[in-house]
Amino acid sequence: MTRLRAVVFAALLVLSLPAASVAGPAAPAVPDTGDATPTAEPRLDALTISSSGSGVSWVTVGGDTSTSYAGASAGIGSSLGDADAELRAAFAATRIENSYGAAASDAGRQRIINQSVDDIKATIGELHEREQAAAQRYARGEITGAEFLSTIGRIHAEATALETRVNTVTELASDERARDIRLNGQLARFQTPMRADIAAALEGDRGPVEDIRIASNGSNVVMDRIVGSEYRRESVQYDSYVNDGPIRFESLLDVTDGMDVSERGAELYPWIYSNSRNDNSHRWYNSLMWVRIEHDRGTLQTFLDGTTRDVVLEYHELDVSDLETSPTVSNTANGIKVAAHRVPDGGPVRVNVTTPDGAALDANVTIDDHTVAVGDDGTEWIPARSGPVSVTATVGGDSVTVENKTATVTVR
Length: 412
Prior knowledge:
InterPro entries: DUF7094, DUF7096, Filamin/ABP280_repeat-like, Fn3_arc
Radius of gyration: 24 Å
Domain DUF7094: 213-323
Number of strands: 20
Number of helices: 8
Domain DUF7096: 1-206
Structural class: alpha+beta
Domain Fibronectin-III type-like: 328-401
Strand content: 25-35%
């Protein structure tokens, strides 16, 4: 049998809105569901927080960036690794309890608490460094996207296991000292919903996680995916993190050069703060400030470093139907009409594939060698890198073969 194959290309060019610069700066392998080698993106500006067409601000990846699509699924190596992390954490907690119980004085017990806190802080710093090292290796093309996600899942498991030690130390400490420890939030930075899904997939506690776009320049990472009608986007700025540095937020300490957390948050996320639905949750965790805001288009969680006052990690859950997009462009060839538009500043692309009369077609859509099937209505949202994006819609048959024909359109 021969095969009918008609292809339409749509090249999308989105001009970014003005961006406000932000000051500051071996896991087990799993099968890669995306490209083995990241593709290079055009050089962009320095690290920024940009305001998309929807008004929602988010961290964008700057510098020489590598982008690919990958997923995570269960493997024996990851399961054994998680069990090992839990065992080591339980042993360390027992050792702390035994040492504390054997101490002969209050001063001796306090020294054990202080040393344990210092050890935990050092371990948290090591987790951060390991993750950044993996991001740098990924950006250089030394590991695949799936291997990077495997590292993310492994670090999530170790952070979760480390909670056992944190809880043990907090319970043994005096009430005043326990309030000063506040290390659970430092671990929460490694335990976002995106990471929890990746870790659960690696452990086999849920099905595979697929179609995560990973972009990194080594200094920061953006991971985004579409889940149903929701756009989930996580960004990390590694150089914004200072482990256990001095606090410079006025709402936490009385310092002369401080700034209120709400003031800084509103500066970074003006639209979100202006359209929040609640009183905005702020919690201080040692040298990190955690902020959670529900707003008219979804939810933001962000971790601000107490020293740099910059975003270390942010996580968005947004309804794609509420996000403003660039104008729709379309073209028709070979009996296929492809229409597309996107959310600015590296947001997802919406593609619709129909007949010229508007009837939905069963098609595959490809962006940067990553292919997904469109929904029953011929429509699909796909995470995509910043800058010009080529979208290929393919409809296949099995009766005749025709020469591939293409048509190109540009969105500005």
